[in-house]
Amino acid sequence: MQERDLPRIERSVWLPADPATVWEHLTDGEMLGMWFDGDATITPRPGGDVRLDPGDGPMRWGTVEAVEDGAGIQWSWRAGDGDPSLVVIEIAPEDDGTRLSVTETLLDYEMSYYGPTYVLPRSRLRWVG
């Protein structure tokens, strides 16, 4: 597969909470569901499941690709027959709170007999198992 620039969305926000609290909200399914305004489950380890049922939209499901405990998590996912994307979430202390940065990028893929084969960009996060 040939690498190409794919659409991405980037957002960054300052939160009035310490990084440990923000991390807990990202890695606990019930709290993550509140952020996405739906039901969510997440197993925050490489290879773990991530699922989101927003109730008023398509269910999303995917796989956790990388975790840096307390600093970031990334997963690949897709909704129904939609295109797959990679979500990278990074957190860092800033002033008296936390900077939360989210990037979602469409993934390049090819269809094969067994389904889609994804091309994941090199992770900025350190793999932990």
Biggest β-sheet: strands ordered side by side in the sheet: 1-7-6-5-4-3-2
* Main β sheet profile: 7 strands, antiparallel
Q: Count of DSSP helices?
A: 2
Helix content: 10-25%
End-to-end CA span:
28 Å
The residue ranges in which pLDDT falls below 50 over 5 or more consecutive positions are: 125-129
- What's the average pLDDT? 85
Task: Report the sheet-strand fraction.
Answer: over 45%
Structural class: mainly beta
Radius of gyration: 15 Å
Order of helices and strands: EHHEEEEEEEE
CATH class: Alpha Beta
Explain what the structure shows.
This protein is mainly beta and about 130 residues long. The protein has a single domain (about 10-115), classed as Alpha-D-Glucose-1,6-Bisphosphate, Chain A, domain 4, CATH 3.30.530. Helices cover about 15% and strands about 50% of the residues. It has helices at about 20-25, 30-35; strands at about 10-15, 40, 50-55, 60-70, 70-80, 85-95, 95-105, 110, 115-120. Helix 1 packs across helix 2 (about 30-35).
What are the key terms here?
2 helices; two-stranded antiparallel ribbon; 50% strand; 129 residues; mainly beta
Could you give the topology of this structure?
Layout: E1 8-15, H1 19-27, H2 29-36, E2 39-42, E3 49-53, E4 60-68, E5 72-79, E6 85-94, E7 97-106, E8 108-112, E9 115-119
Antiparallel strand pairs: 1-7, 2-3, 3-4, 4-5, 5-6, 6-7, 8-9
Helix pairs in contact: 1-2
Write a brief structural summary.
13% of the residues lie in helices and 50% in strands. With 129 residues, the chain is mainly beta.
